[in-house]
User: Fold these one by one.
Assistant:
Number 1:
Amino acid sequence: MKAARLHGFGKAAEVLSIDSPDLPEPAENEVRIEMLASPINPADLNVIEGTYGQLPTPPAIIGNEGVGRIVRMGAGVPELRIGDLVAVLDPGSWCSHRTVPAARVIPLPPGIDPRQAAMLVVNPPTAYAMLHDFVSLQPGDWVVQNAANSGVGRCVIQLARHLGFRTLNVVLRAELIDELLKLGADRVVTEDTDLRKDGASAQLALNAVGGASALNMANALAAGGTLVTYGAMSRQPLKIPNGLLIFKNLAFRGFWLRQWFEVTPPDEQNRIFQFLGKRIADGTIRVPVHASYPLDRIHEALAAAAAGGRDGKVLLDLQA
Ligand SMILES: NC(=O)c1ccc[n+]([C@@H]2O[C@H](COP(=O)([O-])OP(=O)(O)OC[C@H]3O[C@@H](n4cnc5c(N)ncnc54)[C@H](OP(=O)(O)O)[C@@H]3O)[C@@H](O)[C@H]2O)c1
């Protein structure tokens, strides 16, 4: 048993170490999973530095999502089998093995790429929920988003295309424009494009950046449109001119997946994860992997994940 454990909050080099904690035997209704892969998401970096909205009590194994195979089962788990590939819903996936309640795993469709499945639990439902829960989008409606090259951004592009919505995408780097158009984006512009002069008229804006980027997107909304903030990559606050509220009656909302898990009935979550698992298995949703690292090189992996200009996600290869 090997695990990345947090012993406090701050700089990863000072608070995160690879340890060998005890691994409990699976009790009734529990399964043991041999973990295969887990991504490093921005929220994981925020947990380590102690700035995330919900923090574990150290010492704690972290890692918000991951995938593995069931290798042992307690009594009373008729619907799962040894060898099943599953994604795990609870944090604590940066480890070689874990024991979890059977109710906290998602069985995956046959043939799914485990590395893609490792990224099922956080970004695809975030994209799905934001496209469904705020505005009743009709086929052909426009959605505008920033950080369009992010994991969430790519899921939004691919899901919107699948569902018949159109996307206007804002990126930091012009070199990504062709790649995102090929992925299914309808339009891609860079952050320095003034969307006030662009004639864009979207129903929904998805903001993962904040600051000037969010204001620029608010200017691309139609009257009555909604801007949903779900990330703050620039760490700059929102500045909203009074006129956007008075003359356009825009709505400004927020989204947090942890809260979505609390308010969404389990059957509905299950339905959405079945849908998203199938979309990953059939290639509708695919997020590139920039690099993968063994758990022993966690600090190199974290540095790579924190750097900008990546070609995709940084993954931990948990059996290497
Ligand atoms: N609220 C929720 O429940 C929820 C759920 C999932 C994710 N999130 C948030 O969503 C955001 C994206 O997550 P992810 O996993 O998709 O991220 P990711 O794949 O790691 O990508 C991060 C993206 O942010 C862009 N970026 C970084 N700094 C920026 C800046 N100053 N201005 C504009 N863009 C910048 C990067 O651009 P380059 O590609 O050019 O480097 C990259 O595309 C994060 O803030 C994350 O915490 C929130």
Number 2:
Amino acid sequence: MENHLISDKASVTIIKGTTPENCVLEGIERLGGVGKFIKEGDQVFIKINLSLPNGFPVIPNFDVIRAIINSCKEAGAKKIYVGSFLFKGICMKKFSELLGFQEYFKNLGAELAFLDNSNYFEQKGIKLEQLKKIKDNNFYKIEVNDKYFLVPHVIVDSDKFISINQVNVNPIFKSNLSLLNCYSNVPVHNQEVNKRLPEEEDYIIHDEYKQELISNILDVYSIKKPDLAINDLFFLLEGAGPYIYRDSNLKKTGSLIIGDDAVSVDLITLKMLNVDTNSHDLILEAEKRGIGITDTSKIKIFGEMDDNLDIKLCVPNLQDINLRNFFIGSGLYCSGCFKQSYHLLNLMKTIMIKDLKYNPINSFLIGENPPEPKNLENIILFGNCAINSTKNSDFRRIKKEKGKSIIDDAKDIVLKKSNSEEKIKIKEKINKKILELPGCPPDIFKCIELMVDYYGKSNAPNLTLYNEVVKIWTNGKIKEKLKKWEAL
Ligand code: SF4
């Protein structure tokens, strides 16, 4: 499926300018002009990184997308598609309705690709055979390293593939990279890492989650590599990105990094962000597998490397998220729970500030054998490891000394029993102030639903409101259809 001429050299340009649009156009000129990448009559697929129906910079800059579409048209492209798979449970039809994507791209002379087939969702009375036929016509089942990936025909069959990646900080890989953008070329269920099995004792110590994720990312990348990769860091979210959280900060660097090899583009981007690429697991694995150019002596760099960007990366410890009225107790956990809890805690810090004022005592326990909570109230157990390893913990039961009544005292006097002879009676009952958020790792939207049920509307009005907004993107009907269409 490789559409690239295998080359042992790469060209990357670092371009600084006054607007993102000027930067992208000038950058492509420096690499030899758009004609070097797009030929007359080409079908082009432009992959953008989309996840949640939020605005820029959670989604890419539309000035850059427009400039690329116009350049492809000028070079004679016969058809231009733009698309991506989205966050779990969100379909492109809804996304497009909310943000007006379909119309916008149509006006630019391109077409929004409904990779998840959600443009068929409204069609009534589709029979099972028709459904199967549409799916067969839309997806290739491609085997890489004994794994199967469903890849849309429109991506594989396009003559040219362009990746436009909006760079923001990322809790696992330090930065959103082009390699990650290419990962959402496959449906979400194909991107998920297998759950830990009970016999996998060393799963967490070896961080098998991250290893499998990295392996999958490189497998999917090897199916269709971009002919042109653009990392847009002109504006980026630093601090608590990649989404708009309370601790996220929009930073202007004024730079774009563009090249003909996405791995090289990512490598240079990480260097610009002052990330040690010699210990970056994804880059190291790409190097080990000989995917892309990771040797800087083989990368022809146009432009000046700015290693003074001073970007604030995501915090490495959950405790550093500093959530008001929340004790965070960590046991042993892997990247799966780290990533999901990082987002959940940041989301809570963003939307629950007032809610937490009224719920002042909370503990959040994560990982295998976490410490005891600070209190017996509102104990959140995040992930299967935390739930299973605390089944017999003291905090699961509330012990109460049974007090003596006046009648008991009278009996003692009659029987001439002294107080010291009295055995203290302890009464035990199950602690119901515990919320389990299951999963390996848990799903954020499900966690929010469970938290709304637990805290209640009156105790957590802001969280309840947010949950109602999420339901607009992920209501039951949409989920049902995504499942039926195997696009969840
Ligand atoms: S429950 Fe969480 S910490 Fe445990 S193996 Fe799964 S993802 Fe890792």
Number 3:
Amino acid sequence: MTFDTLIHSGTVVDGSGGARYPADVGVSDGRIEAIGKLDAAAAASVVAPGFIDMHSHSDVTLLDDPGGESKAHQGVTTEVTGNCSYSPFPSGAAAPRDLQRVMGSTMASEVEWDWTTMDEWANRVDANGVSINVAAQLGQSALRIAVGANEDRPATRDETRAMKRLAEEAIEQGAFSITTGLTITPSCYADTDEVVELCEAVARYDGAFYATHARGNPGWHVKMIEEAVEVGRRAGIPVQFSHLAITDSRVYGRGPEMISVFERAISAGVDIVFDMYPYTAAGIDLHQVIPVWVREGENEEMMARLADPSIRARARRETAEGADGREAPDWTAVVVSSVQSERNASAVGRSIREVSDDAGEEPAETVLRLIHEERDVVSAVFHNRVESDIRYFLAQPQGMIGSDGNAISPRGRNAGAVPHPRFYGTYPRLLGRYVRERPAVMTLEEAVYKSTGFPARRLGLKDRGLVKEGLAADLVVFDPATVIDRATFEEPHQYPLGIPYVLVAGAPVVWDGRHTGARPGRVLRRGE
Ligand SMILES: [Zn+2]
């Protein structure tokens, strides 16, 4: 038999969680055509399904950087976008630029948003070309903005009806789920009932699910999971709990209380699982450390509040004490990742404490000044977790991997930023630090399952997530003895080691460690 590509004498870790085996894998016409099991001892290189990154925010970065280099080099072949309530569609009755104005600080891009629906956005991504696949979710903040419910109040009956119609349209066009960001404006203005009502509309569609960045308010480390369970139970919808972590030092080590909520829900028949990333720091918009009332409404309203001396003084006081009842931040632990203007470029890569010392101002004032001067386009890394919690959650069977990072190019528009290293290192870090190094948290088979077959199952992808004859040839070849991340908090724009080959639909995207520039990816649709 001849193939377009033959991966010779590999060790197949097939993504199901089952034991590895030695085999040749033949690829033709974009599909895995044949798997020839071998008697020989397993070879050094592992052949696995391409990683499916369950949690990304690459909705528009893939238009700026269609190569998706930071992810492709990790072996990621599908990015799941639209998380935390942020999606670049639908714009509904609002103009696309209104949606971009409100959400563009989080989904920063050179591209002008000129699409209105999921379909139009997908067509734009496909027409532009993209190296890896994209599985899109619908963000509930976008729905609120689309119907003009941008303020801190419940949605009206009419608005709710309009949001349900827009949600149904996006799901019919192939969005995989609806997502919330219940500490993020305007998503957080929805109470549980409002979320349930939207989810009921979505639950009618085969395979559609609910993904939530939960209401992680102080004291809510258990309650935030209970709310997600309640939504799943009442709406009859599967639940994906996003980026599970403990970010409040007062409850470090309390993971077992949280996992027991998952266990009880699952045994009561609620289909709830979670994703997480293997780092002890979060990546945030800097505005997440200031009080939520400062952020209400449109960007101009927020800027007007910051320009008013008495309002600013109150915001500064609350930020310093710990906004919305949170702990007072350790300002050495909050490091600026990116700004948009030249005048604050020197802050990038430095902690709020360092920047404030240099400027001779209080740290909370530095935070507000940066947000004000940058018109809210400031991101940061927040070192707010402990390694023991990360290891505990990684070991749980309900958890899969999602980087929460973007697909970017080190030479693209983010070249001057110092983003969270998860953009470049999540999967090699999992395979090196948590599988190979001792003590290991999980087996290689488990790590691959949490990165492929498990997310494919949640997404209902029938054609991906396994090394199996007939499936799409989205594959990664890596060396389990050397694979490791090299991206650091100081120098994140670094590709990992030990991942020489990545195929998307049979086409090489990474070959001998180099990105080929090929764009065989596309926007996937729910049900395929
Ligand atoms: Zn989130």
Number 4:
Amino acid sequence: MPHVRIDGVSKIYDSAKGPVDALRDVSLSVARGSFVSVVGPSGCGKSTLLRCLAGLEEASAGGIWVEGKKIVEPPFNMGMVFQRDALLDWRTVLENVLLPADFRRRPRKDFEAKAGALLDLFGLIGFHDRYPRELSGGMRMRVAICRALLDDPPLLLMDEPFAALDAFTRDELNIELQKLLASSGATTFFITHNISEAILLADTVVVMDRRPGKVAKVLPIELPRPRPLSARETPEFAAYGRIIRETFESLGILRSH
Ligand SMILES: Nc1ncnc2c1ncn2[C@@H]1O[C@H](COP(=O)(O)OP(=O)(O)OP(=O)(O)O)[C@@H](O)[C@H]1O
Ligand SMILES: [Mg+2]
């Protein structure tokens, strides 16, 4: 049984200007522990798909099953990093990371060591007692990632988590994330606009077409793991990049010459 099964999901939003066709007939089966990168142009429904997976948005047609159970509300055993970091301004960095413990009504002290270790790993040593307003955009995003990872969720949903980071930090976190997931075994959906990041991290890259968002291509990435940053310089890696760019070109989304 796949860990996650997305079956014929369409999403139509009601808006003041009439219905918005955000997703059309998206289907995808994802094995446990695998990493799915989702790439596609702005507005093609990537965040919508993630919000449906998270149970925050109801599909207009079709459905999503996780471990064979249909998603009808946000489940506890899932970590989510929102495109906007969604930190609580009145809580310190550490208290923000400990939020899942409160949700689950579990004692914070059971999670404090883990929260501290995650913050340190993500370069936030010395910032545990600061408030979100005192952080840069990239630091806030890192706090949001720590929060999503706090309870080792079997399903991790990340909406452009590294978009606000500088290239060096992004590279570093690409490596750290691989290490974390290798030990946690979480199934991960990861949205990015960066094709090379999508390939480096993924077992499968899902390429989406413009609105109404549909799956244009499902591309398995068969590069050996672990993947150091230098994997990006191999001909095999470049070939995957070419396939994705050609897919965008054939959809009229990208013109590279
Ligand atoms: N709550 C909403 N009400 C009405 N329309 C919405 C709502 N949320 C999203 N949309 C529309 O649905 C479409 C898909 O939006 P979505 O945020 O999923 O795109 P995206 O692929 O994540 O884009 P980006 O790469 O810019 O983040 C867009 O046209 C957007 O305007
Ligand atoms: Mg989005």
